[in-house]
Design goal:
single chain; Topoisomerase I, Chain A, domain 4; Ribosome-recycling factor; ribosomal large subunit binding; Ribosome_recyc_fac_dom; protein biosynthesis
Length: 187
């Protein structure tokens, strides 16, 4: 019966690739001295009882390289958006002007650069955990098939394949982290 067991490695791979894509988005949000709308992408606001990306509660603009503005559509959400930005770890002090929130991008000093490399490291660690969770899911599917009569040789082959996939994705995360930390530390 389980001689026919086929692990959906495409699904595991797709989920691991999705984790890398999320990490790329999170890294894009880490500023390197210039303002960009994408730096706000990972910040979620509690709007109408659910967590919502900032770009879905207001218009994000970059009128000049060192300024990002958010024109919040609902006046009642201005405080929540401001609070979300303050608590995001971006190190930017929002300034209110009616429904417009202005984010002046300060020069990155050495200390702030080090802080941002730590934030990047945190993002990378979350990605590694997510990859390991996908790995664990694959291993559980293999264990179940083993209990249903899969041979030990087949079990080892599948486990090696899942482990190889995991190692490859973890290595990509480490490379992306090194690259981002280098970018942050450049003056």
């Amino acid at each position: 019966m389980s001689e026919d067991f086929i692990l959906d490695t495409d699904d595991l791979n797709r989920r691991m690739d999705g984790t890398l894509a999320n990490l790329r988005t999170e890294f894009a949000s880490l500023r390197t001295g210039r303002g960009s709308g994408s730096m706000l992408d990972p910040i979620m606001v509690d709007a109408y009882g659910q967590m919502t990306p900032i770009n879905q509660v207001g218009t994000v603009n970059v009128p000049e390289p060192r300024m990002v503005t958010i024109n919040v559509w609902d006046k009642g959400l201005v405080g929540k958006v401001e609070k979300a930005i303050r608590e995001s770890g971006l190190g930017i002090n929002p300034q209110l002007n009616g429904t417009i929130i202005m984010l002046p991008i300060p020069e990155l000093n050495e200390e702030r650069r080090r802080e941002l490399t730590k934030v990047a490291g945190g993002y990378a660690e979350h990605a590694r955990v997510a990859i390991r969770n996908v790995r664990q899911d694959g291993m559980q599917q293999i264990k179940k098939a083993k209990a249903d009569g899969m041979s030990e040789d087949d079990q080892k082959l599948w486990e090696e394949e899942v482990q190889t996939m995991t190692n490859t994705h973890i290595k990509r995360i480490d490379e992306m982290l090194d690259h981002k930390q280098e970018e942050i530390m450049q003056v």
